[in-house]
Amino acid sequence: MTENSRPVVGIVMGSDTDLPVMTETAQMLKKFGVPFEVEITSAHRSPARTSEYARTAIERGLKVLIVGAGGAAHLAGVIAAETTLPVIGVPMATTTLGGLDSLLSTVQMPGGVPVACTAIGKPGAINAAIFAAEIIATSDPALAAKLREYKEQLARSVAEKSEKVKREFQT
Ligand code: RP5
After folding, report:
1. pLDDT digit string (tens) for 110-144?
2. Interatomic CA distance for residues 7 and 168, integer angstroms
3. Residue 59, CA atoms < 13 Å, CB-side half-sphere
4. Which of 11, 18, 25, 78 to mutate to test the pocket of ligand 1 (most atoms within 8 A of CB)?
5. Are 62 and 10 in contact (CB under 8 A)?
6. What is the pTM of this model?
7. What is the pLDDT of residue 113?
8. What SS3 class is residue 65?
9. Is residue 90 classed as helix, strand or coil in its secondary structure?
10. Quick one: DSSP state of residue 95?
């Protein structure tokens, strides 16, 4: 799979104000060489456009949708209602309620319409990309190898930090 090939992940967000956080998703997908497309559409401000996006996602070749929204964050849910693709919701941190509003309105889906919900904000945006890559990697051995290497690097970085801290306490 190359970055120039057809997008397999859709990154969707409710507003351009979500972009600083959702850029983390894009950067992580780029790191793994997973091609993606980006769309802004709103569950409440542009419901028809949102419905059209969700209904046409499969025919455009997408395999996973990552949806960031904040506040009354219904975007992931309404997209999940209109597609059989796996939908990963990323709750935005909000200034008024710290993102608890986004989290609850993304995660508390009724039975029958699943949304896989990540942590609030940047960690969630990063994890959404990794999770999407893991889904795609179930039928892409080269991508699975990149994900294994990423996890090994994570483990190495913890060991390196531990050694650094030990050295600081020894002096
Ligand atoms: C949601 O409302 C968006 O996802 C955004 O997080 C939030 C606020 O949007 P703006 O008023 O900043 O455009 O639809």
Report:
1. 999 999 999 999 999 999 999 999 999 999 999 99
2. 46
3. 5
4. 18
5. yes
6. 0.95
7. 98
8. strand
9. strand
10. T
| Chain centroid offset of residue 139 CA | 19
* Cα 85 from Cα 83, distance rounded (Å): 5
Residue spans of the chain under pLDDT 70: 1-4, 171
Radius of gyration of the chain (CA): 17
The predicted pLDDT at position 171 comes to 67
* 55 Cα to the center of ligand 1, angstroms: 22
Per DSSP, 40 falls in state E
CA angle 86, 2, 58 (to 5 degrees): 30
Looking at residue 26, its pLDDT comes to 98
Backbone dihedral angles phi then psi of residue 68, each to the nearest 5 degrees: -105, 135
| Ligand 1 atom nearest residue 94's Cα | 6
User: Can you give the length of the chain in residues?
Assistant: 171
Residue 37 dihedral angles phi and psi, to the nearest 5°:
-120, 160
What residue's CA is closest to ligand 1, atom 2?
70
CA distance 139 to 137: 5
pLDDT of amino acid 1? 45
